[in-house]
């Protein structure tokens, strides 16, 4: 008959002692992780940094910017942050965070995830079992890529490597300014 006190002392079920780590990190992983391999995570100064930083924006398709602004700004009360007629987009503020509503005449409805590097994040999705739908490409404020996760969900990944929009008093984009901080502690 097994000795319940021995099991408790050696890190078994009901033990207050942690179990001994195995030689292979995959043996300690959840079953799905064991089958797929170790997670792909970046380490900076021994701190694991997730790939997705935050939802940067949610694009909402509109037939034209004037009608979109009339609805979202004038009727629903969202403040205009910036407007770029060259690419058919306008950014509006959300009152309880820095995620933006981006009205667009060219893109579909989608959240855009902020990443440190769109190129690197797309590669990390592939290494984790996802796939690239659209390779990273230049956008006015940085780079953008579209990926699918291991379950077929599409994600828009963007970085702000070129900086943030600078605007005039009317919110019209006049250029791109300094890049945002890359240290997550500054976000």
TrEMBL record:
Region (Disordered): 1-35
Compositional bias segments (type: Basic and acidic residues): 1-12
Endpoints of the signal sequence: none
GO terms, molecular function: dioxygenase activity
Keywords tagged on the record: Dioxygenase, Oxidoreductase
Protein's UniProt name: Glyoxalase/bleomycin resistance protein/dioxygenase
Gene3D superfamilies (UniProt xref): 2,3-Dihydroxybiphenyl 1,2-Dioxygenase, domain 1 (3.10.180.10)
Organism annotation: Kribbella flavida (strain DSM 17836 / JCM 10339 / NBRC 14399)
Domain (VOC): residue spans on this chain: 54-160
InterPro entries for this protein: Glyas_Bleomycin-R_OHBP_Dase, Glyas_Fos-R_dOase_dom, VOC_core
